[in-house]
Amino acid sequence: MLLTLPIRGYESTIMIHLLRNMQFDILHRPSYAALKCLMSAGEEIRTESGAMLAMDETAAIEGKMEGGLWKAVKRTVLTSESFFVTKITATKGDTEVYLAPRATGDVEQMDLKGEEYIVQGGSFLACEAGIETDAKFTGFKGFVSGEGIFMIKARGTGAMFVSSFGGIIKKELKAGERFIVDNGHIVAFPSSLTYEIAQAGKGLWSMVSTGEGLVTVFTGPGTILLQTRNLRTFAEELNPFLRTRERSQGSGMLGNVFGG
Q1: Range 114-138 average pLDDT
Q2: What are phi and psi for residue 211, nearest 5 degrees?
Q3: Span between the terminal Cα atoms of the chain, in Å
Q4: Which of 102 and 168 is assigned the larger pLDDT?
Q5: Which residues contact residue 53 at a Cβ distance below 8 angstroms, ignoring those fewer than 6 apart?
Q6: How far apart are CA 186 and CA 226, in angstroms?
Q7: Residue 28: how many CB atoms within 10 A of its CB?
Q8: Which has the closest alpha carbon to 189: 143, 214, 165, 220?
Q9: CA dist 11 to 1, 5, 8, 14, 81, Å?
Q10: What pLDDT does residue 245 have?
Q11: Looking at the predicted structure, is the pLDDT value of residue 148 above 50?
């Protein structure tokens, strides 16, 4: 922007650069949320593969292995995220980009200032360039739960967006307060939050009779983001009515690599 200011009887043209952060707007929440990004030239946003809903024709989009081959493999095999992370870059001002999660539900913005968060595999939607992501192991007990075994660790500075199946509940824990969450309903929580994997009840009969498996026991202080629906149990309800699943990009390894 150019401003012309008078200085001691003559005019001097002063160039003022206004730095504007990327602007975000979450649309149609909570059931069918989508993320609108308004980007300045040179700004970029990293998204889960397949999340791009629409964008200006001037935006540049490319797929890349986030953090190299090993991190990309961990993302695919361990967290159900895709092999590639999509990077969208604005080549001009006021570039519009629309992103949407795969599941029906809400989107939440989280502003990280050097913190580290743990995000349930499948809930990561997008983040600014100042945030790094990697896979994180949540404990050997998670193997028998069938859900929440590996999550995504996100750390850095900038905006990060997570999605849910259903609505999002924010549960704030006081120091020393303990709270039990079904593994399939976790969206995200700060890594500073102490947690452990445990049984929902006492003994095998309790697990069978209540229909609950393993849970995560959190100890505050900190805020947990929860989703009101469990995608795994929903899929199990639909399973008797569905034919064999086929990925849009193909079955087997290629389907896992490219997402779909």
Answers
A1: 87
A2: 75, 10
A3: 43
A4: 168
A5: 34, 98, 99, 100
A6: 5
A7: 11
A8: 220
A9: 17, 6, 8, 9, 57
A10: 56
A11: no
H/E/C letters for each residue in the chain?
CEEEEEECCEEEEEECCCCCCCEEEEECCCCCCEEEEEECCCCEEEEECCCEEEECCCCEEEEECCCCHHHHHHHHHHHCCCCCEEEEECCCCCEEEEECCCCCECEEEEEEEEEEEEEECCCEEEEECCEEEEEEECCHHHHHCCCCCEEEEEEEEEEEEEECCECEEEEEECCCCEEEEEHHHEEEEECCCEEEEEECCCHHHHHHHHCCCEEEEEECCEEEEEECCCHHHHHHHHHHHCCCCCCCCCCHHHHHHHCC
Taken in order of first residue, the domains within the chain and their CATH numbers are: 24-235 (3.60.160.10)
Q: What is the pLDDT of residue 256?
A: 53
Q: What does the alpha-carbon distance between residue 44 and residue 7 come to, in Å, rounded to a whole number?
A: 39
User: What is this structure's pTM?
Assistant: 0.75
Token pair listed for 179? 């709270």
Mean pLDDT score across all residues of the chain: 78
Distance CA 124, CA 101 (A): 9
Mean pLDDT of 67-89: 60
Tokens matching residue 42: 């040179």
pLDDT band at 145 (very low <50, low <70, confident <90, very high): very low
- Could you give the CA distance from residue 136 to residue 120 in angstroms, rounded to a whole number? 10
The length of the chain in residues reads: 260
User: Bridge partners of 12?
Assistant: 5
Distance CA 179, CA 149 (A): 19
Burial 165-178 (b: 16+ CB within 10 A, else e): bbbbeeeebeeeee
Q: Cα angle vertex 37, ends 49, 188, to 5°? A: 60
* Distance of alpha carbon 50 from alpha carbon 84, whole angstroms: 10
